[in-house]
Design a protein that fits this description.
- It is a single chain.
- By secondary structure, the protein is mainly β.
- The chain has a single domain, classed as TolA/TonB C-terminal domain (2-Layer Sandwich).
- The chain is 12% helix and 37% strand.
Amino acid sequence: MRVGGDVLRPQILKRVAPDLSKLQNRTIRPFGIPIYEATITAQGDVTNVRVIRGSHPDIDAEVIAALRQWKFRPATRNGKPVAVYYTLTVNIDVW
């Protein structure tokens, strides 16, 4: 399902920042604000993360690992938890 109409959006409960420290000694530079789409399950877990607009493959891998640790209050439809596709943006503040 998609958020909208009688499907209310999920609420973030726990955010985990990506660990980009191991990439600092490389010549990787992030660009733009990456956008990812994921499934937020009826239990509030993040699954099936895919890159919509990436930054750099190595950075995206770290961000996806972090996103999988996020926790949400699930989306609801008619008061019942449901799984939804959800777009996530991540501000990357590195070196």
